[in-house]
């Protein structure tokens, strides 16, 4: 089962340890599930199925079980008891050393190497199973498959009381570099009106302008006044086919 957005509590995910009262090294983690968590009932159902398979007549008193209310599994005499979690459910999951280190990744599926990023009090997605087991005194166990750390911290902060790296070395690290000022996005230039072609060297003085001036398509939409302003003359306009001569007949070009 994949259980999302839960709180890791005192995880052992990178180096296996022998738990108190145990004889074999293992990886493990406690998972705190809020009373209003949308997947809480799914975990209850998975636990009930395992209990029915192993103990069809009911779970005997004193049986080791991996899931229950926090206040039932962690009593006030425990050093790590935290009254803030009364009403939460606690799921304990484990993985034997012989199975190898469980995958621990970030949201980009990149392996996490530094245990400081998977600390007690961080938010995570956990993949696990719950089954009945008959070895030893027997019980109902939670089996750890893998952990994805979200990079977020729970509303309760760190549960182990340890400072972050930033807190331990505050004021002695490299000075923070101010972020670069945002660069404004380029603004598209407005579309310019048709630009008249550059004028050639003017010939001898032009004759008087005809009374009617009709531009041809060769002028690329430029008006007579725009062409004149660009340095053209009536003669160069007519000789280059930009304007019809008097009479309206364009000159022939060879």
What do these coordinates show?
The chain has 254 residues and is α/β, with parallel strands linked by helices. The chain folds into two domains: 2-164, Nucleic acid-binding proteins (OB fold (Dihydrolipoamide Acetyltransferase, E2P), Beta Barrel); 194-249, no CATH class. The protein contains five helices and eight strands, in the order E-E-H-E-E-H-E-E-E-E-H-H-H. It has helices at residues 40-54, 70-73, 165-168, 224-229, 234-239, and strands at 2-17, 26-33, 64-65, 67-69, 89-96, 104-105, 122-133, 139-153. Strands 1-2-5-8-7 form a five-stranded mixed β-barrel. The longest helix has 15 residues, at 40-54. It is elongated, with a radius of gyration of 40 Å. The model has no long low-confidence stretch (mean pLDDT 85).
